[in-house]
Amino acid sequence: MKIGVIKEIKTHEYRVALTPDCVRSYVSRGHQVTVEQDAGVAAGFANEEYAAAGGTIEPNKRAIFDRCEMIVKVKEPLESEYGLFHKGQILFTYLHLAACGELTRALLAAGVKGVAYETIETDEGRLPCLRPMSEIAGRLAVQEAAKYLEKPFGGRGVLLGGVPGIRAAKVGIIGGGIVGMNACKIALGMGADVTILDVDSGRLAYLDDIFNMSVTTLYSTEGNIDAVLRESDVIIGAVLVPGAKAPMLVKRSQLPMMKRGAVMVDVAVDQGGCFETTHPTTHDKPVFIEEGVVHYCVANMPGAVALSSTRALTSATLPFGLKIAELGLEETCRQSRAIARGVNVYAGKCTHQAVARAFGLQYAGLAEIMEATGAA
Known about the structure:
Helices cover 35% and strands 16% of the residues.
């Protein structure tokens, strides 16, 4: 298969979808890999390294789209890239379609086969291609919150871990999944007083156990969220419904009950955000203030640590990409239900129920479409 690796153009997105080692893995299996010139430079990988691994360096992005059967990216395509796709082309990347109707409609119109990293899901409910970025985002969330608590950035002027003789800052984490657990690790490590909320009592028991009762665990109700909002210096939104728009758990009307200069970090911003006042920000202007509360809503948080993120991401996505390249998407989906769940759009149809619900689109089962179209 002919594979194309594109340079990311989202603001301050420094990651790259394949490392030179990944390219070598594709080439050793007989595939052709074309890498856009300088695609990996920001993440620490030179053009010469890709060439030495067997890749072809191409300065013209359109030429890559025209000749390649599968495009591998990190982030969702931006509007300037919509017109580059051709019918039947495989797009393998983070898509987050439930938060972007314009992109969804563009991919449907182009007849793209869109495989989203974030909805590849095992029978056990694991999200292997999302997990490494969730781990990084959870850890970064606390790191960034600690910075923006500082007075020069509009924060309360509170040291997250405190010092002897004063109280540590209070951190509330809404969602006890991978993001929430990793945020909890860092917040505890920095000495904060942590409360974590979730709707799964079994997950709360697990968190209570692994953190040796050093965190407060609360069942996520409106009343408990209100109480945590009132007392916290930092709130981290870490909820996830795979493939779907994030549930809105903090309303604008609740912000006046918070401490002035408190910090909210919405890690769910890629999926629309779980705070009503969320809107996506970038690394060059990461925060804004609403109702006296500092909001950090960067939509590609792991991009700030591009080398670590690229290595973590590609180690997770490479096995799936190789399988698609080896067997083709259709046969891969027949053999792997995990990858089949990752297909969000196919042959002009929406094949993910949560995305279809988000925009009132007709949902179509992938297996039925492949059978109806006689997909090989």
